[in-house]
Fold:
Amino acid sequence: MIAQGKVHKYGDNVDTDVIIPARYLNTASHKELAAHCMEDIDKDFVNKVQEGDIMVAEKNFGCGSSREHAPIAIKASGISCVIASTFARIFYRNAINIGLAILECDEAAKEIKNGDEVKVDFDTGLITDITTGKSYQAEPFPQFIQNIIEKGGLIKSIT
Structure:
C-alpha cells in the first residue's frame, strides 16, 4: 500500500481536543467531524486538506482523551497517513481500529516540512520526502495490521 500527498505539519503534544474539539462530539457523522478537524490549531486546515494528504507531527500525537473521534476526524478529512515521532498509546490503537494509517519515525517527523510532498510505502516503512529527496525508514506494520488498515478498520464504519 502506498500513500502520497502534501504535508500538514504540527508540533508536539497535539491532543485529541485540538484534533476534534469536544463541542463537536455530539455527532456520529464522520463528515461533520471532518469539517471541524484541527480547527482550534489550524483554522484553515479543512480548506487546505486534499484527499490523500499526509499529517506530520512530533512527539505525543493524540494525547488526551481516549475518544476515537480524533482519528475518525483525521481520516474523514482525507488524510491518508499520520507520521509522528511518537503517538499516545490510546490514539495509536484507535487509529488502527478505524483504519487510519500511522507510522512512528522521529527523524522524518522532525525534518519533513509543512507543504512538502511525501510518499509512504507501508509494506517497507519507507518514507520519501519527494520535495527534498530524503528518505526515512520507519518500522512497517505486520501484514495483519496492514490488512486492518486496508479494509478500513476492524468494523464497517458508518459515515
